[in-house]
Amino acid sequence: MRQALALGRFGLGNTAPNPAVGCVLVKDARIIGSGFTQKSGRPHAEAMALDEAGKDAQGATAYVTLEPCAHTGQTPPCAASLKKAGVARVVYAIDDPDPRVNGGGAAMLRDAGIEVERGLLASEARRDQLGFLLSKTDNRPMVTLKLAVSANGFMRTPEGEAPWITGALARNMGHLLRARHDAIMTGSGTLKADDPSLDCRLPGLADASPVPVVMTNGDLPTNRKLAQRENLIVTNAAPRDVLADLAARGITRVLLESGPTLAAAFLADDVVDELALFTAPHEVAMSGESDISQMQLDLARFSETHAAMLGPDSYVHYCRERKN
Fold first, then answer.
1. With 274 labelled, which of 30, 158, 267, 317 sits at a CA distance of 20 to 30 A?
2. Which of 60-69, 190-199, 305-314 has the lowest mean pLDDT?
């Protein structure tokens, strides 16, 4: 199952509105097929693994990170495909809350005489699938708040200085985060101050750039870089309304890269699910209350999931525990 989870993560940011699922087929103590949900959600992970395994899938065990689907869409039901291939046992991590599935996949497998087990590494799978799950249960995508701060808590540098708080490795990690999200959101303050591109500039991942979303009360100036993006979304709605609109568009994962005012609004609305915190070792020559203090960021509400040193900068990723 850990291998299936690792495979599923390759699809993050590329499969919406479908979930990023991983699947591994095992027979006689060896892996005979594996796969993950492909771009735009098809083929599904199970189809990729079954195709690789071929006739060897007969009698195998399938480890899947989400309950196999039971409905016919642009692909056949994965539960039916597993049945047709003669798989003997299916182990999946979490149920699929989509009303078209919601236990139907497991029932279809059991009715075919296939042994079914659920719950293996469920908490890890729930974290990976949070965007998809929230889109079905809360009518919104998941939100990751990305922050890059100085040692004294500022997210900006003095006027006239280079705008970067962190170094190249940390910025590259930030671009990888962009590639793993469906949309990236900022506010008018960041737009005016930085004129960001909000794309992914890692080699080979240019086509993984997320949909840019700007929250502003005014029109977007035509001389801004984002004005040239055909898929740009501009809105003046409140955070929860914006997230509902994005969910309706099939977006399940949002990266919030903004100043302290907009970040504080999302935190106050309790719609920040994950936090990517980059901290530089140096202070910046700014006075007054720090940006982090203004946001009233309460790290006690989050649990640390992993951490790393990226050159001189530290990176810590946090998650909120959710029921769904």
1. 158
2. 190-199
